[in-house]
Amino acid sequence: MSLRLCLSPNGLINDRRWSLGVNDDLITMRLCPRAVLIQPLIKDNQLILNAPNMEEIKVKTAPFHDYNLRKISINTEDVRDKTTVNIRGKAYVDEGDRVSVWLSTFLEIDNVRLLESIDVHSHAIPVHGAGTKEKGREESALMITSEGSLDEVNVRMNIDPAGGNEPHSVNMSRFRPSVVVEGPAFIEDFWTRITLNQVTFTVISNHCHSHNVTVDPLSGLSTGQEPMRTLEGFRRGQEDQVWFGRNMIPEGEGEIRVGDRVMVRR
Fold it and tell me: Any residues with CB less than 8 A from the CB of 102 and at least 6 apart, and which?
């Protein structure tokens, strides 16, 4: 977790605002693990991108004017002339050729486009847990997990090692949580509501992981089968989904910081 996270009722501010696209589809980390090495920074209405052996590039962008409307204004002076595209039924603003060249050079893929979502909270995520298969909750969730959960995964990886060049332990960055708390393994499985720094969250589902967790975020390379292999052995749930951590949505606005006290309702 960063030193401070800013929240609206729609989730983390600016979360999932940009995507990468190519050939009228979105690029996932599974298809392009190297994308994990791109470091974004939002400052003064600019998106600043950095990556290894690349000069930083700045992209002018529109601010969020009203989070309650859940819309980005795309008619400002800086972005009004940009092209709007539709991918998988969702509208995006194409951020232009200059950043496309930068991305294509680094990722070594032709014509990669930087796409800004017009409605950043229109994604739907499946809700798995407590026997429900409800779909349609907005993709505004934050992932929360505990240090003990990661410790348990690493212990099990060493009890039954995969062999070869597989890692014997992984760090929390493999799972990309928003919030990490101190506590025993998988204590978060039993939480229904959480309060951090006067911001209350409703826990809505287990967090399902794909083979993206096999990508080392420091190198952008897959390290083999782990930790997915170990998780599949003891954290497999409905529809063969592999769970680690929980999804939660904020009930209001506010900020959370490292060191905040955690209040839990089960």
Answer: 49, 54, 57
Which uninterrupted H or E stretch holds 79? none
Q: Which residues of the chain does CATH 2.40.33.20 include?
A: 125-265
pTM of the entire predicted model: 0.79
The amino acid sitting at 26 is L
Amino acid at 158: N
pLDDT in tens, 168-191: 899 999 999 999 999 999 999 999
Q: Give the number of other CB atoms < 10 A from CB of residue 218.
A: 10
Per-residue pLDDT tens for 2-36?
Answer: 467 787 766 777 888 899 999 999 998 888 999 99
Q: Tell me if 177 sits within 8 A of 245, measured CB to CB.
A: yes
Question: Which helix (H) or strand (E) covers residue 194, if one does?
Answer: strand 193-196
At residue 10, the pLDDT reads 67
Q: Examine the pLDDT at 103 and tell me if it is beyond 90.
A: yes
Q: Which two tokens stand for residue 86?
A: 């539709």
CATH class of 125-265: mainly beta
- Note whether 179 and 142 are within 8 A (CB): yes
> What's the Cα-to-Cα distance from 73 to each of 10, 67, 78, rounded to whole Å?
16, 11, 11
Q: How far apart are CA 6 and CA 253, in angstroms?
A: 8
Quote the CA–CA distance of 173 and 109 in Å, as a whole number.
25
Judged against a pLDDT cut of 70, whether residue 79 lies above it is answered with no
For residue 70, give the nearest of 122, 5, 132 by alpha carbon. Answer: 122
Pick from 162, 174, 171: which is nearest to 224 by CA? 162
- Which residues lie closer than 8 Å to 68 by C-beta, 6 or more apart? 8, 9
